[in-house]
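Two records follow; treat each independently.
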Amino acid sequence: MEAGPPRDDDSRPATAGQLRSLRRWLLVTGAWAVAATAISVIALIVANRDDDEQDRARTTGQIGQVQRQLNQRLDDLEQQIDGLPTADDVSNLDDRLRQVEDGAAKTSDRVGQLSGRIDDLETQVDELERSATGTETETETETTP
């Protein structure tokens, strides 16, 4: 077998210049890879920071809404409390109720007295009717011969 001339460039060994050029390109590619990785990490950190800020903004909004609702409820309760009677009002009402009860008791006593007087009058009327009936009967018996 005869050794013939090499067929193409792939079969020849690399020269020192080619190796240096290859090393340079590998360093450039590595630098680009490190830069891309750094940019990716920075983008990830910024994205996480944005997510955190959005979460904080959302949470802040929810807290603000809850505070507004609580303030509204407190205002409603204060209005209800302001509408309630005071101790003086209750005391005045108590005094008026006591006066009404006293008046009712006096009225009840007077009704009892009047009822007694009416009973006395009815008794007197009955006695008068009996005596008038008895007098008529006596008058009739005396006038009849």
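The next record belongs to a different protein.
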Amino acid sequence: MRSPIPSRWVAITVFIFASVLNYLDRQILATMVDIWRTRPEFPFTYDDYGLLLSVFSIAYAVSALFVGWFIDRVGLNRGAGLAVTVWAIASFGTGASHSVHQLLLWRALLGVSEASAIAAVTKAVAMYLLPPERAVGQAMSQLGLSLGSGIAPAFAVYFSYRYSWHWAFYAAGFLSLAWIPIWLATARSIPPVAAPQNNQATHSFGLLRDPRLWTLMVANMLGMSVYSLWANWAPTYLVRVHHLSPPEASHFTWIVPLAGYLGALLGGAISWQLVRSGQTPVAARKRACLISAVFVLATMAVPLLPSAAFATAGMSFSFFWVCSWSANHYTLPIDIYGAGRAAFGGAALVFAYGVMQSLISRPLAAVIEQYGFAPVCFAFAWLPIAGYFLVHMLIADNSSSGSIPQSQLMESSPSKY
């Protein structure tokens, strides 16, 4: 009896669990900031946190293009397996650290390895899903990020208060290693829909001569600023503005990434329907980005909200729509360049995100320390819509890799695979 769920969606679901572990490893640190600040044996400041984010982001950005090329070159399975192994090692090293200087080393290694995550998901989506489905596939990757981010505060608090903060990072590393054999077994049993052409990966760096890729990168730096704000500073917002303790903040902040997943899913559904109604994939993604960016303007209202519960709702609404924007924007490289160079295209956006975050993290920490969150929320609210207009003006609606026949584009029939 044929399963009602196409096997390609099973494969994507298993792969997405790597994103859960990626953001679990990464976002434990956001909660650990205020835990460390209450413990004199491990002196830590907001400036130290800004420095850690900058170092992580620089490593993330510098390695992203090479990691994307590497995954295109060696294949999804080898590339993802090696990357997860390295970030598990970095998580163990973070847990064994006893100073900020040691943390810097291990967070840099984590940045190098975790630069692979979005590139690998982008390639998996390109290989396993049809064009109308791809933004939903990227939205599922947001589920992974959201689950990882949502679990991280409670995960960090549980181990830090019951055992030791070191074990929060050790446990995350063990979970990452456990994912590798599960994915390899899945990949052996479920073939991809679109196998990439072997010769394309060799020329991935040639995409840097394409002005469309640079347009996507700059737009990503603009739009993802709001994502970076709530992904890294939501616990601190509640601690600083509403005077919650880290355990109290963890009861609220898990809602923010969950809202992000739901927003990404809605964004993917919007562009799916637009493609099925006859719009090109690129035009559909752009329209969905515009709708999302308009709602992100509500970020300006978050500092006006009077309680921790209302502030969490405001952050969640903002994150909901920026993730809708992100799900569609990160699908554009697949639409334009196809499966053969999907990892490199996705890695270019990772590079842009890493550069943006490395540039803004310490200045952002200084502004928050001195002036609070109000000026940040007001300025950042406008950036996703600026990113949309840049893409709208410089990338044509008919940009397409043309790698999958139009008949499949309109049908998306699950019974064929």
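Discussion point: Residues 402-417 have pLDDT under 50 and may be disordered. How would you locate this feature using only the token line?
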